[in-house]
Structures are given as structure tokens and as C-alpha cells.
Amino acid sequence: MFWNLVQHKMGIGRQLFLFRWMPELENGGSNLTIRDTESNPLYTIDIDGNNQYDALSDGLLLLRALFGLEGQSLTAGAISPDAVYTESSEIKSRIDSLGDLADIDGNGTVNALTDGLLTLRYLLGLEGDTLINGVIEIDAIRKSASEIEAHIKTLMPPL
């Protein structure tokens, strides 16, 4: 078995260290799902907690939050009818809990016009060059569509 020590930044001065089984080194799968409740994965882009990955709710909430919107400006028209998390404070907390995992291109900064847009595009079904064209930063660690897609998929555990 292959194990990897993973460090997640969880806001100013807070970090989570955990060991992650790396089955992708054995058979291409992923086996990490941390949950904040019995049914909701903690590190996921299912921002509203309705057990669906949706561009017009989860993607839009993430993008708005990364632009700094709060309160009604963050949530208006973007919360799914079956959402578990509906208050802007809950939404913001879930996005903040992603920490550096939300840095989709890996350049060390979580940015609306790169990381937020990449996530939204992916949730809209865009892949390959269409996903990344005009969005990747020069200092990005993950530059190819396959690297970006693989990272986003780590934030989409089975629900």
C-alpha cells in the first residue's frame, strides 16, 4: 500500500495533517473521504450539501465567495431547493474549509478568475483545452487540462 502525508491549510494558522492512502498508485482509484456529518463530505465542492455537484449552485457559490461576496449577494438565486446549507455564513464556512484545496491551479493563491472559473467550467461539463483556455496563471503548478481535471475530481468524492 502507498500512503502519503497530506497537509491542508484551513484558514489562518489552522492546518490539518492526515495520512491519505494513495491507491491511484496501485489501481487508479481514490480512497479519501472526510465527512463533517454522517452524510456530507467535508472537503468537497458540493458547497450547499445537497449531495449533487452543480455548476449553477455549487460553482456559482464558490465563484461569488472568491469574489468576496457575502450575505444575500453570495446566496441569492444560487442555493438549491434541497440544500442542507442555506445561510451565507454556512456557505462561507464550507468554502473556507477547503483551504488550499480550492487552489485548483496550484499556484499558492485561491483566485476567483482562475480557481473559481476552472471549477465552474468543469461543473458545466467543459473538459480539455476548453476548460483551461485563458484561465491558467503563469505561475501555476497544474497547467494541463488533465492535471486540473484530476485535482477537481479529488474535491468530488462519491456522494
Polypeptide structure, described:
The protein is α+β, with helices and mostly antiparallel strands. The chain folds into two domains: 1-32, no CATH class; 34-154, no CATH class. The chain has six helices and two strands. A two-stranded antiparallel sheet has the order 1-2. Helix 1 (55-66) runs antiparallel to helix 4 (112-123). The chain is globular, with a radius of gyration of 15 Å. The two termini are 25 Å apart. The model is unreliable at 1-41 (pLDDT under 50).
Key structural traits:
two-stranded antiparallel ribbon, 2 domains, 6 helices, alpha+beta, 159 residues, disordered N terminus, 2 strands
Q: TL;DR?
A:
The chain has 159 residues and is of the alpha+beta class.
Percent of residues in helices comes to: 25-40%
- Average pLDDT, rounded to a whole number, is 81
Give the total of beta strands. 2
Structural class: alpha+beta
Distance between the termini: 25 Å
CA radius of gyration is: 15 Å
The low-pLDDT segments are: 1-41
Total discrete domains: 2
Q: If helices are DSSP runs of H or I spanning 4 or more residues, what is the number of helices?
A: 6
Order of helices and strands: EEHHHHHH
